[in-house]
């Protein structure tokens, strides 16, 4: 990969994005880093629900079935052909290796056939760039204010990142064990709420008392890292205890108390980092940023502006990959057809 020059201007480019890192097969066309011309997502959620989580082998096979139609759909919805584009951006990592290669191979085939440049994009960078996307004809989002403090919370990641300029990152901390979304998914399974766990817990919590159980919050001595395994074990202990006594599970109270404990820590540490690094703006992205309590709490408690993408752009999609791709394209990134998947690619390796 060629080095990227820092770029603070709005990019002029029309990019096709492809995403297949986990359980959504997606393609989208984005113009100038901010305008969504199309965004098509084929979700595998129902397929994986029967296993209670993402089954990697099943995911890759489903990506193979879905990838070609979803790219065709994205181009059709944008009323464009490959020749109308400037480049093809694809999620290179992090993610499931067998899923990533499906999107990457599709992108390589399109790049080879059309002569368009290929760009490998970091999935977490994509989640950040989802904050500045809007659909064609809608009012554009406020431009970012740097230094910007980002919390990325998804099924695989919980990261605090300082963004000093476009494409410039400093990783401040992350989870030492389970990701926030993973904790939601595991606790939902414990409570018999099904997959994906985040929306199920949020729904069950609506009827519950968030103070019914005093679950632990891991502050880790003021560090900017996270740990959710102790919280998950605490919920497990309560559930096992109630089951042994054959008592009915107060599912709503357990869900509400668990959700409150996760949100307390996510918001507490994000605000701490924003203060420490004098952030001008806070950005929250990734699947867990769809959580209503998290959205409301951080908006209410932050002393600087907070950007959170609309719900459809919080979970995995390809518009975010195309959006980041516009900036990477303008900064001069071009990848070769020998580009490999990067299943464990950290955002700290980006600059
Ligand atoms: O970003 P994403 O779609 O995929 C990954 O990159 O992992 O995030 C999926 C995660 C899942 O763990 C899901 O349970 C969680 O996001 N999630 C939520 C909510 N909606 C999705 N967690 C809490 N509350 C929600 N409303
Ligand atoms: Zn994601």
Structure report:
With 351 residues, this protein is of the alpha/beta class. The protein folds into 2 domains: 14-133 and 312-350, Nucleotidyltransferase, domain 5; 148-308, Nucleotidyltransferase, domain 5, CATH 3.30.420.40. Helices cover 40% and strands 19% of the residues. The protein has helices at 45-49, 56-77, 97-114, 123-129, 180-190, 197-205, 229-244, 251-276, 292-301, 311-314, 319-330, and strands spanning 14-19, 24-31, 35-43, 87-93, 118-122, 134-135, 148-153, 158-165, 168-174, 281-285, 306-307. Strands 5-4-1-2-3-6 form a 6-stranded mixed sheet, with helices on both faces. A hairpin with a 4-residue loop joins strand 1 and strand 2. Helix 5 (180-190) crosses helix 6 (197-205) and helix 5 (180-190) runs parallel beside helix 7 (229-244). The model is unreliable at 1-8 (pLDDT under 50). Bound molecules: 5'-O-[(R)-(carboxyoxy)(hydroxy)phosphoryl]adenosine (KG4) and zinc ion. 5'-O-[(R)-(carboxyoxy)(hydroxy)phosphoryl]adenosine binds at residues 22, 154-156, 181, 184-185, 196-199, 202, 286-288, 290-291, 315-316.
String of helices and strands: EEEHHEHEHEEEEHHHHEHEHH
**End-to-end gap:** 13 Å
Helix proportion of residues, in percent? Answer: 25-40%
Low-confidence spans: 1-8
What characterizes the major β-sheet?
A: 6 strands, mixed
Structural class: alpha/beta
Briefly note the CATH topology name of the largest domain. Answer: Nucleotidyltransferase, domain 5
- Rg is 20 Å
CATH architecture of the largest domain: 2-Layer Sandwich
Identify the overall geometry: globular
Bound compounds, please? Answer: 5'-O-[(R)-(carboxyoxy)(hydroxy)phosphoryl]adenosine, zinc ion
For the record, what CATH class of the largest domain applies? Alpha Beta
């Amino acid at each position: 990969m060629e080095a990227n020059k820092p770029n603070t201007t709005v990019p002029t480019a029309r990019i096709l994005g492809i995403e297949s890192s986990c359980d959504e097969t997606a393609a989208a066309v984005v113009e100038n880093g901010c305008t969504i011309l199309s965004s098509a997502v084929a979700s595998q959620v129902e397929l994986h629900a029967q296993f209670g989580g993402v089954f990697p082998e099943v995911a890759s096979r489903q990506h193979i079935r879905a990838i070609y139609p979803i790219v065709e759909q994205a181009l059709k919805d944008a009323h464009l052909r490959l020749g109308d584009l400037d480049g093809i951006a694809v999620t290179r990592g992090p993610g499931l290796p067998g899923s990533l290669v499906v999107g990457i191979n599709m992108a390589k085939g399109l790049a080879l056939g059309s002569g368009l440049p290929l760009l490998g994009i970091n999935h977490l960078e994509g989640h950040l760039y989802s904050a500045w996307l809007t659909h064609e004809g809608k009012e554009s989002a406020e431009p970012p204010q740097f230094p910007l403090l980002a919390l990325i919370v998804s099924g695989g990641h919980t990261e605090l990142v300082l963004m000093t300029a476009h494409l410039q990152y400093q990783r401040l901390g992350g989870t030492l064990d389970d990701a926030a979304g993973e904790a939601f998914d595991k606790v939902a399974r414990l409570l018999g709420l099904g997959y994906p766990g985040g929306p199920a817990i949020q729904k069950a919590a609506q009827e519950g008392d968030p103070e019914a159980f005093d679950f632990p919050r891991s502050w880790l001595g003021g560090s900017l890292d996270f740990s959710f395994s102790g919280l998950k074990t605490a919920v497990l202990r309560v559930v096992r205890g109630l089951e042994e006594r054959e008592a009915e599970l107060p599912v709503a109270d357990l869900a509400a108390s668990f959700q409150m404990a996760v949100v307390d820590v996510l918001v507490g540490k994000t605000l701490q980092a924003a203060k420490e690094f004098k952030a001008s703006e806070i950005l929250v992205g990734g699947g867990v940023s769809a959580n209503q309590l998290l959205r409301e709490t951080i908006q209410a408690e932050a002393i600087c502006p907070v950007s959170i993408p609309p719900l459809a752009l919080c979970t995995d999609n390809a518009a975010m990959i195309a959006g980041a791709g516009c900036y990477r394209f303008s900064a001069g990134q071009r990848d070769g057809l020998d580009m490999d998947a990067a299943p464990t690619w950290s955002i700290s390796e980006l600059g």
